[in-house]
Prior knowledge:
Elements: E1 10-15, H1 34-39, E2 44-50, H2 56-65, H3 69-72, H4 87-93, E3 97-102, E4 119-122, H5 129-132, H6 135-144, H7 150-167, H8 177-190, E5 195-201, H9 212-218, H10 231-235, H11 243-273, E6 281-285, E7 291-292, E8 298-299, H12 306-309, E9 310-316, E10 324-326, E11 330-331, H13 334-343, E12 387-391, H14 395-407, E13 422-427, E14 430-435, E15 441-443, H15 461-476, H16 495-503
Parallel strand pairs: 1-5, 1-6, 2-10, 2-11, 3-4, 3-5
Antiparallel strand pairs: 2-9, 6-9, 7-8, 12-13, 13-14, 14-15
Amino acid sequence: MTNDDAAGNVVFVVMDTVRKSHLSVYGYDEPTTPGLERFADEAAVFEQAVAPAPWTLPVHASLFTGMYPSEHGASQENPYLEGATTLAESLSSAGYETACYSSNAWITPYTHLTDGFDDQDNFFEVMPGEFLSGPLAKAWKTMNDNDSLRKVADYLVSVGNKIHEYTASGEGADSKTPQVIDRTIEFIDDADSEYFAFVNLMDAHLPYHPPEEYRAEFAPGVDSTEVCQNSKEYNCGAREIDDEEWTAIEGLYDAEIRHIDTQLQRLFGWMRENDEWDDTMVVVCADHGELHGEHGLYGHEFCIYDPLVNVPLMVKHPEVDAERRESQQVELLDLYHTVLDHAGVDADRATVPLDRTRSLLDADYREFAESDAGAAPGSHPGDGEYAFVEYYRPVVELKQLEQKASDAGITLDEDSRFYSRMRAARRPDAKYIRNERIADEFYHLDSDPGERDDARGADSDEEVELEAALSTFEESVGGEWKAVDDEDVLGEMSDDAKDRLQDLGYID
């Protein structure tokens, strides 16, 4: 579609699991993102963007609702979003054409993250999007509305991810990103009015099996089936990874990022050639990053350190200064308000109406009125210098971790980070982490960006200020965490339920 008055159009790209420090546009010494380097000539690049959680479901729920995780409630303890007006619903009500294309198993109708999109498809390798949006979506909701079946729904994702790991492995791996980009181009080309296109690209998520041309450049000679591709084996202590293998793993990861970058160049190039570029707001970010052995962890579970939550964010907008490097801290959930502001949609009837002090486009960005703190979902408790992160217990990953540990004869300590929920208050100079089952942590990020020296207990001014800000945040979102029931999933299932899952191919 060509529209001379297309100032409200939005293309929103999430590069799933992409770590900021592995992007050449952020100074990485490998050429992973030449396309985004060119994009940066037309965009603002944010150095201190903070994700509200370290994994997909709660981050996307925050992007789509403008609420913190404990407010929207989407977690592995309750794995779907419900009862909140989504960004897509507000834009659709205002006359936008909306579409969501992804190859992430969490961004589907059964989690309600696609609510409000006129068109959606999930290119997940396990099963077609038509099934995900039909019978499985209904079954998922039924399970989650029944306390005794809720953990079965968790198990579906767990087993689905295992199937994905198998079907996406080795030379048979088939990135779905080209199909996602093709579908996005088709949607934009067919749109008859202003549009909101949201895409999630999964290449950089484990397991890493990049296309051969990028593997040859970034991981020459590496057999992706021979390196450790299961983070739970490493995290529980059943598998060791030496420096040489980490180098190989990171090479594969870099190759996946380069593939994403190439596909984004294709999308952006098509938009330029078809008069869809100049007046369209384009957002590129990651929902979270990835750890490769730092803090003894692999993947993006069991912590909220900066490699996971200080994410890349780039925004091209007709009214945003190009080639700008922004050091002010921002929160990803502010993008909800930024899109509404750009679209000229107040969303007064939404769960979270437009707050222009949360819009990146507003001159008063993050100049919050403290008197309004905690007054409504999505409001910011205090002034704008703090960002907040929440991590509920990852029950699916925990089950997998326990199984890998059990297979190796390892007993996990339940008073450890594996079983601990976490929250953090962050500024560019410091971060305070509240842990449920282990000691709290405090880091001076300006002098210790790797978060290696826990300075909690020294009673520095920064520690006192960050802990106080976190306490205020906790009060605003409902206080302490609720209890969690970790009973065995399959042990609670009836024989009939097991038979149904077996028919679907989820269990043997």
